[in-house]
Design brief:
The complex is a heterotetramer, with two copies of chain A and two copies of chain B. Chain A has three domains: 7-91, Butyryl-Coa Dehydrogenase, subunit A, domain 1 (Orthogonal Bundle), CATH 1.10.540.10; 126-234, Butyryl-CoA Dehydrogenase, subunit A, domain 2; 248-397, Butyryl-CoA Dehydrogenase, subunit A, domain 3. Chain A is of the alpha+beta class. The relative contact order of chain A is 0.10. The longest helix of chain A is centred in the last third of the chain and has 29 residues, at 280-308. Helix content of chain A is 45%, strand content 15%. Chain B is 50% helix and 16% strand. Chain B has eleven helices and ten strands. Chain B has helices spanning 7-23, 26-33, 41-49, 68-79, 87-101, 104-115, 229-265, 277-303, 309-338, 348-361, 366-375; strands at 121-124, 140-144, 147-158, 165-171, 182-188, 194-201, 206-217, 222-223, 267-268, 271-272. In chain B, strands 1-4-5-8 form a four-stranded mixed beta sheet. The radius of gyration of chain B is 21 Å and the shape is globular. The chains are: A alpha+beta, B alpha+beta. Chains in contact: A-B, A-C, A-D, B-C, B-D, C-D. Chain A binds chain C through residues 280-281, 284, and chain C through 280-281, 284. Strand 11 (345-346) of chain C pairs antiparallel with strand 6 of chain D.
Chain lengths: 399, 380, 399, 380
């Protein structure tokens, strides 16, 4: 066991640092620090994607032949660590990390040739159509159906919680092409143009007043069968592949950046003649979370290390999801306590980084309440933490 | 020893519950919040008509002679309605301060119209560096001839933005942290030199940052005894905090019921969510946390006007700690058990969650009250 | 609502205080403060029972005709409060509070006339035979069987976790008299002489080294059918009656006494030049538990108040069990942290109050670790807390 | 960056696991504990023979040149066996102190026989008023001519009762709380004026309260630099604490496995306990808490000999906090999920629980390490 990077890895780390120093503008950093939603807004994302793309780093895991960077797990770890420390935006995953791997793995050459470059160039913005009103954790019960109509399908139904559907020009969907057999068996994976007649998007405002997700309605939308990825009925396989593909993950650095941010906030928050940071009770509350974040960092490294050795990560990927989401919630909760009476403050304007002048002087306070409120979603989306614990228990019980 | 309600209290409870049911549905509330003030002046007039604004005041002052238990009954029922009217600021903070500290002339001038719904008021007892502690006062009040001159900044003044009158704590002697030397002043909102920066709260109320720059006040603006205002302010804050705990209980009761309904109805994997033992236990914990909070809210109400300050502070702080902790847990779990739709603005769940979150930030957080409780001498 | 006692209640409170002042000897108090088990040892219990009995208070809830005191709920509350504050022993419930109410409710006149006076006088010491190795939370699955043999039964089987079986001369048992129908329907309630041939008792030492519970074996033990309480098959009804009878309860005062004890311990525990009590972190840890105990106290009063009004307590009785057990665990856990390095200390001698000279100077430290270890049982016995939460959920769901 | 074991480490792991399986079953352990010392001298000789006593020492000192990761591997495997031999006291505390602070003569006199299993030793670094902090030293060492004279009391000295040699921290200058002025002395257990009050620990080890009354020592008794002993002591305690975290992980792994087995086998209400979702989730939480602890135990091992003190202390304190918290949770839940029999002395469950409980009380509790961690300057 050792923690050292190889000479090559150290050189890569240096490259990343130089890239961030030159490309991460103060405006981008500020926008990130004032973003209370899961993802940054489209204007920020587009700018960052373009900068990453110019460096060849927008698609770190794609094969080189499609314009990817083919990073090793350690390179990913290094990039994520440096980017988090520097306060860079995260990339929006729906294109690069979600639909693209499915197209690369299951798509035909025409699909690859058409869609992949458009993701890199930013011409296409994707959203994901999985969840439906009746199917939360039980995804296989989805009802949106695609019925053959000549060379096309007619798609009817609705998708819920569709992040950035209001920005996207394309959506990838799981749809039901058959109701025979096991529910999983009748699902197909479709790529749909958001401009298609019959699609409408209704915003869903979160309890913080943010607009990040939507409901998408499909009313007999005509979709060429050529836009199906893989065979008919292979949709569940695509979805599962994507899930496995996402295993592992590097969340701890962003959490550690939150720890540091809270520490600064405690330094800057006066109480009487002193500041919160001077009080061991506040310091220990933060320290208790920092310990957990450090633990997660090592767990992530252990999982990456195992992935690199070709071993499957096992129930640890469920554990990473639980850790990341619950720690994020605990950190935003501590932020609320630091904010004190201003934890009740609500700034309705969006995006926060575009507002001029802040009621409370310290603009950071405007982010804290919506951040806390929105972060409640972390234990719900991407498989509720209840589902994740079911998975872990099954593994521990050897069932 | 008796924990039952009187007949009058039961009638009060029923009338508030009926009001919430008939006039304060989630949709009606949305419409109310869309009004210019962020609340309804009509509803406020209704409150006045039903006597709710006069409830916790002595009959001699034009009140109904109710005590903290009556307030508990009213606030718990209003808690289910997530009301946005300035009842806490006007009645329980400013109104009670006038009632406890004001002389007859002051009561006639301000309390009477307040009880009749014609005057909105607020209490500006906190400052930025003091956080939840009313004992930290940097704002200064200096004698200038006969008059007072106030300078300073007050923070997070609940409904201070729409108040006609703001009761402001200011230092007439001593340094910022000293308990002695604090006095309370009645400041008309239209005073020269008073400026307010309005802001919204996450639960649909409003507040303001209040700046006083050479605000000139007549001698009669002093409410209560000079230099001894902190005792009055703390007594008022404690009684209001006790009432707020009851409001929190009302919100928790509603959330637990709504969540139970949802678990019974929503199906996943071919069975209702209510069939999953983990969710059952979460619901049981929500119930228990609500009951914990209820018990201490009752105790706080019973001691809210206790003559012994330690007894009062222990009871109120215990209740506020529990309301904060329970409110957080119940709110978070209600959202979690609802899944995605729990996070949307569409359902009431998120709004109860926001109310409970905001309540903890007002009148002293759970952290702050725990520290105050722990600093008290031991009981029995 | 009000917290005041009536004039009569205040007079009763005065009586209790006088009784405790005169009857609670320093030796009894010390024995209580050095008891790490659920119940005090038999010598202490016997002495205290005798003193209570002389005052007519050993059986507060029995009807007067049998020698009971017929206390109101408020009187119970007052007695428990004063006794806890004074550090008096609790009474051992198996006779007075468990078998006796069943005999009074379901027994015949001969049984009442014989057994009840012997409980008061201390001639009989009872233990309870409910649990079995195969039936933990699922009591109705019990297997110990009683087969008719002339005027007798022959009882064969085994009972587990039998508190004080090593002291008792009598045991009341749930036994299976029929295997027809629902499992509950075939259960009867028997009173058995522990001297009967065929009974043997094996001690079960707890992980703290304490001997409080036992396994009792019945090898074709002859028990007169006249010793059955109620009809054959009525055992489950008796058991349920007892459960309901035990509803409500006054635990908070003992917990508050523990809070005060921990406060004293923090005053007496030095850290450097200071003592733990000077540190806000320690004070707030205790305060957080004290708040919960205060809450429980009011919840108990509310339940008592409702019982007095004739209303059923509902799921609150499950809640009281959960609160009491989890708070007790939290308090013993805090005691361990206060003990610091001495949390690992193990004093093997028993009873602790009989030991002369203490290794660590402060004899209280000898109780802390076994107390912590034994208290783990609190969330298991009398219906696990998991079962209690099932019950509460059922009530909340209205199912 | 690599988290795999070397081939040698894998062999070490296997040999310790085999030993635990073959020679340290729960029943064998009972027999061992019944021996007069409370542990087995034969087992100790086996440890020596297998080289485990020499593992973490430089080859120049007669050791095997192992580092903290090797110790981690050994201790995690021994953690499953709940061993009662004085490995922590003799090897990781006293042995490492001699190795790091001793000169050649001292090593020859004490370290060599220690590695060969012929000398038991202990480290007396704590006092009653210091609780978990080795920096509080009231015991005084004064020069009397050439010699040293030690007076004072040391508390909770692990295996100090059976040690042939006790390394004692004493103050050669300054007041009790000063970091400077602490020195370490090698005190033979049969020294005049040394007395020991033996006591048992809840997990089957022993310890003592140590009194030094005018204990006279030769000049060569001073281990390391005069007045600068605290740095040495803290380094040794940190490395030992890292190892102890690995031992805790071993116990948690065993408990989680044993509990999973029990849930699969035990039936209630007609189905295995493993079918109840609440118990499944509890088990999942036990697994996660174990893994959290494992990750930080690994980090602590990797930094246990770090040159930078802050780096070392942060890593070790983080691991010890997590081991304490996780150990408590995993132990408590293992007992709870076993129900009644979890509390009896008959099953191993309760003994793992007691071991985990005792580990938190040794080498600094979770509380103490959290405070130390929080007092450190921030990382990156």
């Amino acid at each position: 066991m050792d923690l050292q990077f190889s000479a090559e890895e150290r050189a890569f780390q240096q490259d990343v640092r130089e890239f961030l120093a030159s490309e991460l503008t103060p405006e981008l950093k500020r926008a990130v620090s004032l973003t209370p939603t899961v993802f940054v807004e489209k204007d920020i994302a587009d700018e960052w994607h373009a900068r990453l793309n110019r460096r060849g780093w927008l698609a770190p895991l794609w094969p080189r032949q499609y314009g990817g960077a083919e990073w090793t797990p350690v390179q990913q770890f290094i990039y994520e660590s440096e980017a988090a420390r520097a306060g860079a935006p995260t990339t929006i995953p729906m294109g690069v990390r979600m639909v693209a791997p499915v197209i690369i793995r299951f798509g035909n050459e025409a699909q690859k040739a058409y869609y992949l470059p458009r993701i890199l160039s930013g011409e296409d913005t994707w959203c994901q159509g999985y969840s439906e009103p009746g199917s939360g954790s039980d995804l296989a019960s989805l009802k949106t159906r695609a019925e053959p109509d000549g060379e096309d399908y007619r798609v009817t139904g609705t998708k819920l919680w569709t992040t950035h559907a209001h920005y996207a020009n394309r959506i990838f969907c799981l749809v039901r092409t058959s109701s025979e057999g096991r529910p999983q068996a009748g699902i197909s994976f479709l790529l749909i143009d958001m401009d298609s007649p019959g699609i409408s998007v209704t915003p869903i405002r979160s309890l913080s007043g943010d607009h990040e997700v939507n409901q998408v309605f499909f009313d007999s939308v005509r979709v060429p069968q050529a836009n199906r990825v893989g065979d008919e009925g292979q949709g569940w396989t695509c979805a599962k592949f994507l899930l496995e593909h996402e295993r592992g993950g590097v969340f701890s650095h962003r959490l550690m950046a939150m720890v540091q941010e809270l520490r600064r906030l405690m330094v800057d928050t006066p109480e009487g003649e002193s500041a919160l940071i001077e009080d061991p009770r506040w310091r220990e509350r933060l320290a208790a979370l920092e310990v957990r974040v450090l633990s997660l960092e090592v767990t992530e490294m252990r999982v990456l290390s195992r992935l690199r050795a070709g071993d499957p990560p096992g129930a640890e990927s469920s554990m990473l999801k639980i850790e990341w989401s619950e720690l994020q919630q605990a950190l935003t909760e501590l932020a609320m306590d630091i904010a004190g009476p201003y934890a009740q403050f609500f700034e309705p304007g969006r995006p926060l980084y575009a507002l001029a002048g802040h009621t409370l002087g310290d603009e950071r306070l405007a982010r804290i309440p919506p951040d806390y409120l929105n972060t409640r979603a972390a234990t719900i989306f991407a498989g509720t933490n209840e589902i994740q614990r079911n998975i872990i228990a099954r593994m521990v019980l050897g069932a | 020893m008796d924990f039952s309600l009187t007949e009058e209290q039961r009638l009060l409870q029923e009338s508030v519950q009926r009001f919430v049911q008939d006039s304060y549905s989630f949709e009606q509330r949305r419409a109310i919040m869309a009004q210019p003030d962020g609340f309804s002046r009509d509803t406020w007039a209704q409150f006045a008509e039903m006597g709710w604004l006069a409830l916790p005041f002595d009959e001699a002052d034009g009140g109904l002679g109710g005590g903290p238990v009556d307030t508990l009954v009213m606030l718990e029922a209003l808690g289910e309605g997530l009301v946005v009217e300035p009842l806490m600021a006007t009645v329980l903070l400013a109104g009670r301060a006038l009632a406890c500290g004001g002389d007859d002339a002051q009561k006639a001038e301000w309390l009477t119209p307040l009880l009749e719904g014609r005057l909105l008021a607020a209490l500006a007892a906190h400052e930025r560096r003091g956080r939840h502690a009313p004992g930290w006062v940097e704002t200064r009040a200096a004698r200038v001839g006969e008059h007072w001159r106030l300078d300073g900044e007050k923070s997070a003044v609940l409904h201070g933005d729409c108040a006609d009158l703001v009761l402001v704590s200011a230092r007439t002697a001593g340094s910022p942290e000293e308990p002695k030397g604090i006095s309370l002043f009645a400041v008309p909102a239209d005073s020269d030199g008073l400026s307010r920066q309005r802001w919204q709260t996450i639960d649909g109320l409003s507040a303001c940052e209040l700046t006083l720059a050479a605000v000139k006040l007549p001698p009669e603006a002093l409410v209560g005894e000079q230099d001894a205002g902190l005792g009055l302010i703390e007594a008022v804050l404690d009684e209001a905090a006790a009432a707020q705990c009851a409001e929190a209980v009302g919100a928790m009761v509603a959330l637990t019921r709504i969540t139970a309904d949802y678990l019974r109805q929503r199906k996943q994997f071919g069975q209702p969510l209510a069939a999953f033992q983990v969710l059952q236990h979460r619901l049981a914990d929500m119930f228990m946390d609500t009951e914990r909070s209820r018990s201490l809210a009752v105790m706080a109400a019973l001691q809210a006007r206790a003559g012994d300050v330690v007894t009062r502070q222990r009871a109120v702080s215990a209740a506020k700690v529990q309301a904060g902790r329970s409110g957080r847990f119940v709110g978070q779990q209600a959202v979690q058990l609802h899944g995605g739709i729990g996070i949307s603005d569409e359902l009431s769940v998120g709004h109860y969650f926001k109310r409970l979150t905001a309540l903890d930030a007002r009148l002293g957080s759970a952290d702050w009250h725990l520290a105050r409780f722990a600093a008290q001498p031991a009981s029995g």
